[in-house]
Amino acid sequence: MFKLLKYLKPYIWQAIILVASIGLQTWGVLMLPSLMSEIVNDGIVNNDIPKIWSLGGLMLFWTLMSAIGSIVSSFFSAKIGTAIARDIRTDLYKKILSFSTSEIDRFSTASLITRTTNDVVQVQQTLVMILSMLLRAPMMAITAIFQAITLAPNMTWIIGLAVIVMLGLVILIMSLVMPKFKIFQGLLDRITLLTRENLTGLRVIRAFNTEKNEKRKFERANSEITGVYLFINKVMALTSPLLMLVFNGTTLLCIWIGISLMENNISYLGNMMAFMQYAIQVVMSFLFLSLLFVILPRANVSAGRINEILHVRPKVSWKEKTAGTPEPTPSVEFKKVSFTYEGAEAEALSNISFKALPGQTTAFIGSTGSGKSTLINLVPRLYDVTDGEVLIDGINVKDYAKNDLMKRIGFIPQKAVLFSGTVRSNIAFGNQDAKKSEVEKAAKVSQSKEFVEKFAENYEHHIAQGGTNVSGGQKQRLSIARAIAKNPEVYVFDDSFSALDLKTDKKLREELKAITKNSVVLIVAQRVSTIKDADQIIVLDDGKIAGKGSHFELLKTSKVYQEIVKSQFSDEEYAKELKEAKNA
């Protein structure tokens, strides 16, 4: 938890004002019992009315000072705590954005969401308490003990006894709830994960009629977190009555001992009354500290989860400046590339080498799990190669500054992703300065123009979060339009035509070919018809290249490719393809 106090540095002057205001508040509160003692001993006992009025005026003055200090300290503790939470949340978000896909997989999206929201809120609430109570309580306790010793030294053992009992209770409570807080946060991640999965996969759940199963899974997780939370609440519920028992016992003990001492000296009345208030202030200070130390364990767990994210060193690190000068002619080259997923025993890709040139389409095809998407993800550095090199424009992707590499690449992922906003904002997502004509051209090439112009608002039509208010094919075409509007050197299509009908697919590829004469085009596809006309087709099988060449060349030389074509074509069509291959 205290590792996060480094975020206090930008607000040091506000913290100084906070400490000063707490000091003013504390001094004002502690002056009142002493003044009251003087009123009783010197004013009331001696019937000195002028002294009573003068001391009463001083009490009102210090009450006002204490109130001002309380208001200022509450304002600055809330302001500093909120600002620190904002800074932590910003740093968390920046850190998560820097993660490669492997780090996202390691923590899970649900856990990252919980850490950025719930965990930061826990830390924020505790920071506000630390900034107020942790400063005020010790200051109050130390000064009150000093004043109590001065007024009634023979009663100070009461304070020591109360503090020892209270600390024992706090240690017992912390030992019970501390482990449960960590379990609770893990279960909260589980609840977030199940909720996210069920909401995003609602259509599939309904289609397979598995609502009952999903409900049982959620109820099981919900029951677990409820059980842990009930245990924590039961322990916490005991805290208040136990501490109040100590508080009231201390008050009674002060009165009992004070009255016995007063039998010999009536003027001890003022000292006893003041001592009782100082004792109450000491006990209250330790009560606040106790409450803080009960809350602190949960915040400490949250802080640990936050620090776990902040201290991760992403596997994909970027240069501040690109090393070398990129070649003027765009190209993508793989040199003996191998890749293994973290924790996997076998390589996902092994010894992959090829070069893709501008004005040409390089396509990748293979069975499920052959490594097509893995290969294509290495181009924009979603992962880094285990061995070998990926070169873009003659420079290793690891030697690029992030902006320099990403501006060269237009990436269309396997799963089309749209963001809440408008059609225009989604198309111009990678090129915020795109003109109206550029947006419309991208929509035309991607075959989006026809359905976009049917919307009442055209390009200002609202897109819901995740693109849930457009069809799968429309979502995919808008994703393609987003890459086109960026006007990149390298187009990376990761099975981005799968939701399109054959007619739209063909027309889109024809339009695309006209605008990519000076660009490198990489296409991953399942359908042979999508990549049949590609200049270079690379056949992948179990992470290795099983063939390389044009469609007709591969029909002659690659058994794997022949099997893929045969599985997608009728016998007559396949025979015709083989015949054309022989004549080619």
Provide structural commentary.
This protein has helices spanning 12-44, 49-98, 101-107, 109-151, 156-200, 202-207, 211-262, 268-310, 372-377, 402-406, 423-427, 436-445, 449-452, 472-486, 502-515, 528-531, 551-557, 559-568, 571-583; strands at 332-339, 349-356, 361-366, 387-392, 395-396, 409-412, 421-422, 462-463, 490-494, 520-524, 536-541, 544-549. With 584 residues, the protein is α/β, with parallel strands linked by helices. Helix 1 packs antiparallel against helix 2 (49-98), helix 1 (12-44) packs parallel to helix 4 (109-151) and helix 17 (551-557) packs across helix 18 (559-568).
Note the main attributes of this structure.
six-stranded mixed sheet, alpha/beta, four-stranded antiparallel sheet, 584 residues
Quick structural summary:
By secondary structure, this protein is of the alpha/beta class.
Distance between the termini: 71 Å
Helix proportion range: 55-70%
Class from helix and strand fractions: alpha/beta
Widest sheet, order of strands: 6-9-10-3-11-12
Largest sheet: 6 strands, mixed
How many E strands? 12
Beta percentage is 5-15%
Give the CA-based shape: elongated
Average pLDDT score:
81
What is the radius of gyration computed over CA atoms, rounded to a whole number of angstroms? 36 Å
In the predicted model, the low-confidence regions spanning at least 5 consecutive residues are none
Question: Count of DSSP helices?
Answer: 19
